[in-house]
């Protein structure tokens, strides 16, 4: 089975649309860290001009999902421990700041509904759905900060986070993912801000250590 199965390209497809499709494949793990994006092979398989493929790949390079390497061409990024640390530090500061506040009833309901959606996804075992619901849960937490700018900032981070979460979720059982998030939700429901902060910090710190271990094993 090809990593490109199911990716339909119409004659009117733009480089951006193609980049979005390839991005989804990368996020879903169809292309792993270090894999090459062979422009000629992709062009032939999808029936798209090679120049369009090249432009799409350059768009992906700007998003940080791929980079060009000498004698190899476009390669899916292999995340470094430093990249993981920097991204997750920013994430932790946002989410712990949110957890230190008291959510409104509507915000608490949004967090609870996001958790319920995560549980539903975990029961299906659908990896992309689990990652989507995981990110939605944390987006709901960030919303407690009552800042559309910070909401947008976190949403922008999710492109990279989705990539890392896909790598991480492959090594975790769905029930473990649910249990981690249930502890966070329980702290919010109990109105225990200190515990909510501690649970989020522990969750993110554990994720960082697991990601570093996965990356080390791939070297």
From TrEMBL:
Gene3D superfamilies cross-referenced by the UniProt entry: GntR ligand-binding domain-like, Winged helix-like DNA-binding domain superfamily/Winged helix DNA-binding domain
Superkingdom of this entry's organism? Bacteria
Q: Which CDD domains match?
A: WHTH_GntR
Sequence ranges assigned to domain HTH gntR-type in this UniProt record: 12-79
Q: Which PROSITE patterns match?
A: HTH_GNTR (PS50949)
Q: Which UniProt keywords apply?
A: DNA-binding, Transcription, Transcription regulation
Question: Known SMART domains for this protein?
Answer: FCD, HTH_GNTR
**What is a single molecular function from GO for this protein?**
DNA-binding transcription factor activity
Keyword Transcription tagged: yes
Matches recorded under InterPro entries: GntR_C, TF_FadR/GntR_C, Tscrpt_reg_HTH_GntR, WH-like_DNA-bd_sf, WH_DNA-bd_sf
Provide the protein name: GntR family transcriptional regulator
